[in-house]
């Protein structure tokens, strides 16, 4: 999960209120300040979450080495 940004005007943590998919496998996260209600938007890559969902239990790193 991503760290919640701080509203620099109020010095409080913003709350994640919306996640909207955007192009190129990115998500736009909307964080709302509970005091001044301003919205901070952040676009992040989605691929890490997709990997976890589409490849359950599959190891990412091969650990086999010849004895
Ligand atoms: Zn604020």
Helix content: 10-25%
Write the CATH fold name of the domain at 6-47.
N-terminal domain of TfIIb
The biggest beta sheet is recorded as: 3 strands, antiparallel
Secondary structure class reads: mainly beta
The ordered string of helix (H) and strand (E) elements is EEEEEH
Short description:
This protein is mainly beta and 67 residues long. The chain contains 1 helix and 5 strands, in the order E-E-E-E-E-H.
Characterize the structure shown:
The structure is a single chain. The chain has 67 residues and is mainly beta. It has one helix spanning 47-54; strands at 6-7, 12-13, 15-22, 26-32, 39-45. The strands form two sheets. Strands 3-4-5 form a three-stranded antiparallel beta sheet, with no helix packed on it. The longest helix is centred in the C-terminal third of the chain and has 8 residues, at 47-54. The protein is elongated and about 60 Å long. Zinc ion is lined by residues 7, 9-10, 33, 35-36, 38.
Secondary structure blueprint with pairings:
Blueprint: E1 6-7, E2 12-13, E3 15-22, E4 26-32, E5 39-45, H1 47-54
Antiparallel strand pairs: 1-2, 3-4, 4-5
Brief descriptors of the model:
67 residues, two-stranded antiparallel sheet, binds zinc ion, N-terminal domain of TfIIb, three-stranded antiparallel beta sheet, 5 strands, 1 helix, 12% helix, single chain, mainly beta
